[in-house]
Amino acid sequence: MSETTLRILSAIVLTFVYVFMIFHSSWYYLEFYAFGVVLIYLGLKELYAFCKTEESKPFFGTGLLFSLLIFTVYYIQFLGLQFEVTPPGFVLELSKILREGFHPIPFLLVALSITVWILQILKRPLDGALFSVGGTMLGPIYIAIPIGHFLLLLALPFGTYYIFLVSVITFMSDAGAYFGGRWFGKHPAGLKISPKKTWEGYVTGNLTAVIGAQILNVTWEHYSGVKLPVGILETIILSFVISVISVMGDLAESAMKRDAKIKDSGSLIPGHGGILDLADALLFTVPAIYYYFLFKGFLGFPV
């Protein structure tokens, strides 16, 4: 079976799982929390493998602990913002504290930095300290925080639609760039990080992202009977911008893989590679589109 066929079949299976996860909500959305925990664990394993050298090795257990604490903060925020469920009293109180001022994520990042330096000084030689500490710190920032923003985006009034919108734009951009590059690619983009990328692939990716988003909007409004707060022109502009951001996410992971001298982050997903190979763009696009709609709401526009 060819790599392209494996890639398509894996994408179909993952799409069904993804759609089921979004529409099927259980008690206190615990499946989202469990799914996020699994993604964080697998993503950290792959990321810390990038950072491992003869002299340095990230503190996986410490990075995982703080990543899960950070993700739990976002989960509590999500429950507090979610109108469809009534969390237990202590969760409501915690979410109220998070909304009113004190936010523990900066505190957790500072605590992580101090903890990792203490571990490095007491347990490891100073050779490679910068990469051990820096690599450990990168885990929560690069993986846990973006995955937490998935929950914040879902908590918005049109959250389910926004999740589909950013997913369609991101995946259509990636698929369009992949097949556009294979079929029409003649002019290399000249990127040392990813020398096989072509301008034709990037243009095709942008076009498929715009088309995919428009099809989603028409289909969503037709079957839901609800007028979406995102118009045609806004969708086109947003699709283009998010498509560019998704490319940055892909190139960021490519840079780490090239530095680590590996082709794929893992082999978990046939035709794609590892978790980071599949989700690298979403780690950039989900926070980006969340803050776009948050800023749009602050300006008084409907979201």
Written account of the structure:
With 303 residues, this protein is mainly α. The chain has helices at residues 3-23, 30-51, 60-81, 89-100, 104-123, 129-154, 159-184, 199-224, 232-260, 275-279, 282-298. It folds into 2 domains: 25-155, no CATH class; 158-303, no CATH class. The relative contact order is 0.12. GO terms for molecular function: phosphatidate cytidylyltransferase activity. It is an enzyme of class 2 (transferase). It comes from Leptospira bouyouniensis.
Number of strands: 0
Arithmetic mean of pLDDT: 86
Number of domains: 2
What class, by secondary structure content? Answer: mainly alpha
Work out the strand percent: under 5%
Shape: globular
Low-confidence stretches: none
User: Helicity range of the residues?
Assistant: over 70%
- Major β-sheet profile: none
CA-based gyration radius:
20 Å
The succession of helices and strands, N to C, reads HHHHHHHHHHH
Q: What is the count of DSSP helices, taking H or I runs of 4+ residues?
A: 11
Distance between the termini: 44 Å
Organism: Leptospira bouyouniensis
Protein name: Phosphatidate cytidylyltransferase
Family: Belongs to the CDS family.
Membrane topology: Multi-pass membrane protein
